[in-house]
């Protein structure tokens, strides 16, 4: 069976969406499934895809500016007098995106469909970001699975294409409820959780070695946050929380791991300035992008998740749990579906540095609780989010869509 995956993310980094799709592909039997992938920009993960025998097709996509210059006028978003103009500009932006961004891109993707000849297409970024690919599949009568991984605003355009999609897979129940609340109804509106392979989280280096490289004392209590650096990921909240923790645990250390998103450079500068302002230069280590995240996680005592907006899933949470670490996470979006508060981790209000500091201090201050919670987190993650279960659910869906297509062709 041939499956073409479309991954539309941009920003110059490898995020959770592409990572999740890569691990899904790894889990399939390559003797029975041939995958291809469409990308909109070069990605650092391409050598790994090549090692799996996955051909990559790069599709150029022109993008409109995210906002009109008038939208930068003070009071534009709040003043009632701008309401009609906001409506007109939004409608114009949607129409322009369809004509300038999506239609040309849809025709390019249709060319890939004709050359690769997939039985099923799997688009990995939802109804808005993948509108072009969904349109291409509709135009070519190709079965398509739309993987929804965010809390987006949906309009008539998205509701129209949803009705022409073979199946919609939501990454959490929270995402499915959001879709329903915004008029996305479908007979196949499913939930399939992302998954991880426990073998990927066996450390290759010792805890002492990693700590030595980072300049962290062997016995210092350490909390760390992992993720691309951009404003909604909330690394500034972590910095403010560590400042509070240091007042009570002077030997504490913090680690911030992640590349800077293309849209996150200003936020990164603010982050470094805040570290200097709070005199945390000897407390917080900012590592930049790392390819050895499991090794770094094993060197931590507590993994922290700080998103200030609802996170649809939170893959890094499961990564920390698979490393046997308790996770302190923002209680919003799909995150409460991953963590059982008080058993496999702790949940705190998003953006609340004081509550985050208290939770970090609770775990750093009690080795027995921290160890027991980390072990339970590992066990629960392996049981609920194993790769074999994830692959089996998608395989069943692909097979059903393929059989339906064959049946319709025969009739």
Class of secondary structure makeup: alpha/beta
Q: Please report the number of helical segments.
A: 15
Order of helices and strands: EHEHEHEHHEHEHEHEHEHEHEHEEHHH
Distance between the termini: 21 Å
Task: Give the assembly state of these chains.
Answer: single chain
Average pLDDT value?
90
List keywords for this structure.
411 residues, alpha/beta, Rossmann fold, six-stranded parallel beta sheet, 15 helices, 45% helix, elongated
Would you write up a description of this structure?
The protein is of the alpha/beta class and 411 residues long. It folds into two domains: 2-195 and 387-403, Rossmann fold (3-Layer(aba) Sandwich); 198-384, Glycogen Phosphorylase B (Rossmann fold, 3-Layer(aba) Sandwich), CATH 3.40.50. It is built from 15 helices and 13 strands. The strands form two sheets. It has a seven-stranded parallel sheet, sandwiched between helices. A six-stranded parallel sheet has the order 10-9-8-11-12-13, with helices on both faces. Helix 9 runs parallel beside helix 10 and helix 9 (235-248) crosses helix 13. The protein is elongated and about 70 Å long. The model is unreliable at 88-93 (pLDDT under 50).
Describe, in short, the structure shown.
The protein contains 15 helices and 13 strands. It has helices spanning 16-27, 46-51, 83-116, 126-129, 131-140, 156-162, 173-181, 207-214, 235-248, 265-277, 293-298, 315-322, 353-364, 367-384, 387-410, and strands at residues 2-7, 34-39, 56-58, 120-123, 144-148, 167-170, 189-191, 222-226, 253-257, 284-288, 302-304, 327-330, 345-348. The chain has a seven-stranded parallel β-sheet with strand order 3-2-1-4-5-6-7, with helices on both faces. The protein has a six-stranded parallel β-sheet with strand order 10-9-8-11-12-13, with helices on both faces.
